[in-house]
Structure to design on (483 residues):
């Protein structure tokens, strides 16, 4: 027998849980279905291995939106600590500040390479590519061809597994917007060596601490968070305006749910293939691509004390793309006073050679590479674990924008009760605060009974919550509903 709930949320990551929390606070019935049998948080979960806590990707809690900052404080009032935002780039046996400091970078590269960088930057400024469409073109315009090849090409191709000429300029516009060599030089001239380091906030026991607390609050408000639930199918009855959702539990049992609204942070490709009647845009959804990654956490003693929270590996001779130093994120991520835990991240496609490599062989690769980088002697590694993350990043190829456009049009015309939120739900490489705001605004749309916000307008330029002002939706939802 089907169980009915006002709103069913697919996915218990930041977007899904924020949607459910906002609805529960408004007194609405809501149930969250999360596929993972153990953790909430999605890619923002924290995996526990023998007391060592592994953050899947490294999640800084910083936002231009005071609304999101206030929400973090509300969910986890006593659990956040301030941490210095220290990161570096590793390239050909040298370390560089991240973001790049122009004078340091040019000095480390040597006189001849520095001269080439400066000349190519000048050439790019004099001869810019009009309306750049690829990542390569966008970065070349901002930094010049030589710096592109040194500091951007290798890392971007590690992340995405494709040529920089195939990656959309949209990704560069989102992730490194506002940066160019001239700005880096000016910043270096203005910055005092004793200037305070930028900081961010972080849950003491990792980001999963935030989402565990959020799930508890949803339950306390009368909602439900059910783990180990995989959605198999979604059927929409257009006359009754009701969704019927079939679910397979971790123990193999089946559940049937009905709901007035369904909110999904699941990857669009799989979601659209589960919907019936079959959406016209299912073919567009099938063309969307995702990048997966593997974290190999090495536990042992470092060669020397590390203050960096992250080190980005731009060196083409090293397979790892990034190293996370979990003690620098929070000392409570490590269960003792002497050990360190370094997470080496490997970007891959599910099913490729790296993805199917055994845990034992992945640990061996990571030990060799951490020794090459010089952060830990392989002989000092006493334990390790491997965490695989499906669909960590939606791929921005040259066709993704057209596919998303057709999917949005299809949903608007034929499936009005299906709402997309979050990174994979919207195929939008956004930050955690952006994902949360899509959840807040979607919940407000559901409470209002109409689209008072365009959730797709959430962006960093709008300060995340500035979308309210951009849309002129300044009235509280309660006032909107009562009007």
């Amino acid at each position: 027998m089907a169980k009915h709930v006002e709103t069913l949320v697919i996915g218990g990551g930041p977007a899904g849980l924020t949607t459910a929390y906002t609805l529960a606070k408004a007194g609405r019935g809501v149930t969250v279905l999360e596929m993972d049998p153990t953790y909430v948080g999605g890619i923002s979960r924290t995996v526990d291995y023998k007391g060592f806590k592994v953050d899947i990707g490294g999640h800084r809690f910083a936002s231009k939106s005071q609304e999101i900052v206030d929400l973090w404080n509300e969910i986890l009032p006593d659990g956040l600590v301030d941490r210095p935002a220290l990161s570096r780039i590793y390239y050909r046996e040298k370390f560089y500040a991240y973001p790049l400091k122009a004078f340091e970078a040019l000095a480390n590269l040597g006189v001849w390479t520095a001269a080439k960088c400066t000349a190519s930057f000048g050439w790019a400024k004099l001869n810019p590519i009009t309306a750049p469409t690829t990542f390569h073109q966008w970065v070349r315009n901002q930094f010049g061809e030589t710096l592109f090849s040194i500091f951007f090409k290798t890392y971007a191709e590690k992340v995405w597994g494709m040529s920089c000429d195939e990656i959309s300029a949209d990704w560069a516009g989102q992730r490194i917007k506002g940066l160019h060599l001239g700005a880096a030089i000016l910043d270096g001239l203005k910055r005092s060596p004793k200037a305070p380091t930028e900081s961010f906030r972080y849950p003491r026991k990792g980001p999963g601490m935030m989402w565990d607390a959020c799930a508890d609050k949803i339950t306390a408000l009368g909602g439900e968070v059910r783990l180990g639930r995989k959605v198999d199918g979604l059927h929409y009855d257009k006359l009754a305006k009701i969704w019927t959702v079939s679910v397979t539990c971790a123990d193999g049992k089946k559940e049937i749910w009905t709901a007035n609204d369904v909110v999904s942070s699941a990857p669009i490709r799989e979601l659209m293939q589960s919907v019936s009647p079959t959406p016209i845009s299912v073919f567009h959804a099938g063309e969307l691509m995702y990048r997966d990654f593997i974290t190999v956490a090495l536990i042992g003693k470092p060669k020397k004390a590390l203050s960096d929270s992250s080190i980005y590996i731009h060196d083409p001779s090293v397979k790892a793309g990034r190293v996370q130093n979990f003690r620098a994120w929070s000392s409570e991520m490590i269960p003792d006073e002497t050990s360190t835990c370094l997470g080496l991240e490997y970007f891959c496609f599910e099913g490729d050679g790296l993805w199917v490599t055994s845990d034992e062989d992945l640990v061996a690769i990571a030990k060799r590479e951490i020794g090459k980088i010089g952060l830990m002697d392989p002989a000092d590694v006493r334990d390790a674990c491997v965490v695989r993350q499906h669909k960590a990043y939606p791929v921005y190829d040259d066709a993704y924008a057209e596919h998303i456009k057709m999917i949005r049009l299809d949903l608007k015309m034929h499936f009005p009760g299906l709402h997309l939120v979050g990174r994979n739900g919207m195929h939008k490489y956004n930050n955690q605060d952006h994902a949360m705001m899509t959840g807040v605004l979607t919940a407000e749309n559901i409470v209002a009974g109409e689209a008072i916000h365009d959730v797709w307008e959430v962006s960093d330029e709008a300060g995340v919550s500035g979308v309210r002002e951009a849309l002129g939706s300044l009235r509280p939802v309660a006032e909107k509903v009562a009007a």
